[in-house]
Design a protein that fits this description.
Helix content is 45%, strand content 13%. The strands form 3 sheets. Strands 2-1-3-11-6 form a 5-stranded mixed sheet. The longest helix has 22 residues. It is globular and about 60 Å long.
């Protein structure tokens, strides 16, 4: 009875909110910057539900991942005020929260149930115990692979494979005559694109960005081994032009049946298994991201999350949108329209306790991958930073963007791996010295 009473009261409050917004002219138009990933595109198609409940309207600025990061960073640092809500991640949220650039999300309603957010996601989007962004979805990374091609190659994917196994399987599944690449991985420049992938991979090879005195570590055997292995495997078994492929390019290749394996965000599982979009939906398996036996796997931890810039004139309306888009109710809305396999994953504990979701083929591997990712202990040797595919310092985004450009040039054959690593070493040490770390 108590739940029923709360539900009735909640509906009444929402109805009153909507009618009041319409009646007194206080309905707002929110401008939201977001990434052009599938879950966000789906959210845009459902925002009439939000408008009906609150009276507020939404205008979307939808951008490619690298462009989004550049635009929102420029806007927040210059106090440009172009956006009422920004889509950011675990890198930006604690740094920008510490700087006072974001509105604290400490007035979320009881019905929202902030305690239901997975601890890894809450922690990564908070600073000093205060939540500054709410996760729309959370992710780690894992292997998605073609079960039919693996079987044809006479191999069996372990739940927790090594990089050596992955390379051998990729070579065995490659069929150039039929345009099938054994493996598709990010090579695209950008700290959150190819930079994120190679950094997470390097952890499993024993590499790190910095030693404990903030000295760059690109002049080490561990980094040379990482890049040599990556480029060798991709030249053997990857698609042409892999140096410019990011998340969306590889998703398209996999859905078209042109990849034997793809190691990327766990959130992609719903897209590659959706028969509306994927030609191989009925033959996809999942495994943990690979390791080399050194005790660290190459999976990352990330959340695409919604945050309100400080100084916003529409905080109340923006908070209502964030509650709507990251709530249990939104998950149920997507499930009712698109099925449980297509709800935003990785953000709420209750989703993984929901009997409707437990039998989704990729649910357990997604949760296992998220739970195994530790931003506080991501490297084999000690490091001074928090983060898996990034170092949570303000300077990292700029440094890593430049470093990833050098790496992509090496993948494309425009320079040697040794040259790329020497430039990465110089870029990083110069920037850290200028920033006062040394």
């Amino acid at each position: 009875m108590k739940y029923f009473a709360r539900a009735v009261l909640g509906a009444a409050v929402v109805s009153l909110m909507a009618s009041t917004a319409h009646a007194d002219g206080h309905a707002k138009t929110l401008t939201i910057a977001t990434v052009n990933n599938g879950d966000m595109i789906r959210m845009q198609g459902l925002t009439d539900d939000f408008t009906e409940k609150t009276g507020h309207k939404v205008e979307w600025v939808t951008l490619e991942e690298n462009v989004l990061r550049q635009r929102v960073t420029t806007d927040i640092t210059t106090k440009g005020g172009a956006f009422d809500i920004m889509t950011i991640g675990m890198y930006e949220a604690p740094i920008w929260g510490k700087n006072g650039w974001l509105v604290p999300l400490n007035n979320l309603s009881a019905e929202y149930d902030v305690d239901d957010i997975l601890p890894a996601m809450r922690g990564g989007l908070s600073y000093d115990g205060t939540l500054f962004a709410a996760p729309f979805y959370g992710e780690s990374s894992m292997i998605m692979y073609r079960t039919d091609l693996m079987e044809k190659a006479g191999m069996e994917m372990p739940d927790a494979p090594t990089w050596d196994f992955v390379r051998k399987a990729a070579a065995a599944m490659t069929d150039r005559d039929n345009d099938i690449n054994g493996i598709c991985l990010r090579g695209k420049a950008g700290w959150g694109e190819g930079g994120a992938f190679i950094t997470a991979m390097s952890n499993s090879f024993g590499a790190r960005w910095f030693d404990e005195e903030w000295n760059a570590q690109f002049d080490t055997e561990e980094w040379k081994n990482t890049l040599t292995f990556f480029k060798g495997m991709m030249d053997e078994s990857g698609p042409a032009g892999y140096a410019t492929n990011g998340f969306n390019e590889n998703l398209s290749l996999f859905q078209q049946g042109k990849c034997g394996m793809w190691i990327d965000a766990t959130v992609a599982a719903s897209f590659v298994t959706n028969p509306k979009d994927s030609t191989v939906a009925d033959s996809v398996g999942f495994a943990l991201a690979p390791d080399t036996g050194l005790g660290k796997r190459s999976n990352w931890l990330w959340a695409w999350a919604l945050a309100i810039p400080a100084g916003s004139q529409k905080v109340d309306a923006a908070t209502q949108f964030i509650e709507w888009a990251t709530s249990k109710g939104y998950i149920e809305l997507v499930a009712s329209k698109e099925g449980w396999a297509n709800v935003p994953p990785g953000a709420r504990t209750s989703l993984y306790e929901n009997p409707n979701y437990k039998d989704i083929p990729f649910a357990k591997m997604t949760l296992d991958s998220i739970l195994s990712a530790d931003p506080n202990d991501s490297t084999v040797k000690p490091s001074p930073y928090v983060g898996i595919q990034f170092a949570a310092i303000p300077e990292f985004a700029g440094i890593a963007t430049e470093v990833s450009q050098e790496f992509s040039a090496a993948y494309a054959g425009q320079q040697t791996i040794e040259e790329a690593l020497a430039k990465a070493q110089a870029i990083t040490n110069d920037a850290m010295e200028a920033a006062g770390y040394k």
